[in-house]
Amino acid sequence: MGEIPESHPRRSSLLARQKLVDAAAEGLLADSAMIAHGRGEAFDYLLGEQTSDSARSAIREASARLLTAERPVISVNGNTVVLAGEDLIRVAAVVGCPIEVNLYYRTPERIARLLTRLAEQRASVAGGPAPDGWSEDWAKAVSSVALLGDGADGSIEGLEGARAICCTNGIGSADIVLVPLEDGDRCEALVEMGKQVVVIDLNPLSRTSRMATVTIVDEVTRAAAALVDEVVSGHAAQGDWDNRAALSEALDIIAGASAGE
Q1: What is the pTM of this model?
Q2: Residue-range domains of the chain with CATH
Q3: With contact defined as beta carbons under 8 Å apart, do 149 and 167 qualify?
């Protein structure tokens, strides 16, 4: 890809696409990764390619739940690692939780490659500046983030095949799981196991969005960056969370965009 001017209105989108193209060539992604990303981009157009007020409210709620949980875990797939891995490592460092690589199309090779990429990202984040408002030893907090996924020894009840595989010291024992870009069946299974599930999903009509405890209807890189700020700020929960209302607000934005408002 040639140089993209800072003024290009599609710059962020084009850079994200190129990251995925490069990652696919390195064997980090499933063959369907670009299809999933393109589907999300279509919804992002209708959402105005910006974080809405309702999404910010969901991010604040997710932050409060992660900070008060006993055993929070962040679950990531290939697209998430490539697009938002460093910010999710920052979130994990602040919250004090592990990150588990958990894939729908699971192979030992992809798990190993994604864990290597996460380890590289963790080293980069540890050597970089701490988020604004963080006053503790940043390098120590980041370096303590455990990266899970290899040698998974647990199972998600209600699922079959490779996508049921998980780590008992990760998703298996978690009381809340942050899962960007999730699939609906697994989201439902995790909820049935009594876990809170926070998802980042640009489609407010998806099964994932409707089954989750808290749905952040936003693009994953924007949401992850905003979540870093929220967990550092440490805001309290906002009371009774109404996920259906949050999804309805997102649908109102899409309907308005479709009507040319």
Answers
A1: 0.89
A2: 53-258 (3.40.50.12640)
A3: yes
